[in-house]
Amino acid sequence: MITIIRPPPYLTVQDSGRKHSRSFGVPQAGAMDVFALRAANALVGNSPDLAALEWALGGGSIRFETDCAFAIAGARARATMGGEGIAPFTTNYAVAGDELAIESLTAARFLYIALSGGIDVPVVLGSRSTYLPGRFGGHQGRLLTRNDALALGDRPASLPAQGFVCPADLLPRYESGVVHITRGTHADLFDESSWHALTEGEYRISTASDRTGYKLRGEALSNSPGALPSEGGCPGVVQIPGDGAPIVLMADAPTVGGYPKIAVVSESDLPILAQRSPGEGLRFQLTTIDQSQRALKRRASDLRSISQLANRSAG
Questions:
Q1: Averaged confidence pLDDT in the chain
Q2: What torsion, rounded to 10 degrees, do the Cα atoms 14, 266, 39, 167 define?
Q3: What is the pTM for the complete model shown?
Q4: What residue ranges define each of the domains in the chain, with the CATH number in brackets?
Q5: Helix axes 34-42, 289-313, angle to 10 degrees
Q6: What is the H or E stretch that residue 300 is in?
Q7: DSSP string over 170-230
């Protein structure tokens, strides 16, 4: 078990999301940076999709009520335990009574804290993820607050060695700000000038951005089609509302919508986009569906490599 001693402004329980609920109108939810979640789980001996803490917007601390392995991943953070620094993407061990302090996030947006056994909250529609707009999932469907106690699942049979570090070349290039896209369902409704603006210009993350979608600041795109009949949507869709400012749907994206969809962010690059903070820039690069699928397979291969290396470290 762990106890929340001092929560940041945003702290929830997330796993990899609801994979089979969109036909019922329920968004996927889950971790904004699924790669970081899965990598952190590998570093503590968990299966990839177990629930962890998703942490953002400031510092705070948690207390370990039992011995366990833990790892932090995703956003860069000043983190300490017992006065010692805690490195990212590294296997660490805590004993009952230890406190992990996240003093601040220094780069990127979402930090993940995985714990051996995962966080044991009720499964709702096949996932333990918190969906705040619907007030369900996670811990009572809400943000975590001071003195919340969270149970952990069964300890894994084998745990990676203390200090095991994930090789940097297996991680996404978070700092690059390059996000690959494929053509969307309404790509042909946009003229050459709109495509030039989207793929040659720079966009910045607006402050009007959250888990539902990231609004982008940059050259506006012509929305000559206007509103269209609603159709299915998913995380990664780049839609163009009436003001021409692109919105990229994210983990809590609605299941349907009527804005024209010019493009879709490659799933392999959603972690890079998710970790861009308001004011930070990004550039879109057009790719093919085949190239996008190959990139996703490489991400999956990288995660398998992390898990295999971590398991070998257990000796």
A1: 94
A2: -160
A3: 0.95
A4: 2-166 (no CATH), 174-295 (2.40.100.10)
A5: 20
A6: helix 289-313
A7: GS--GGG-EEEEEE-TTGGGS-HHHHHHHHHS-EEEEEEE-SSEEEEESSPPP-TT-S---
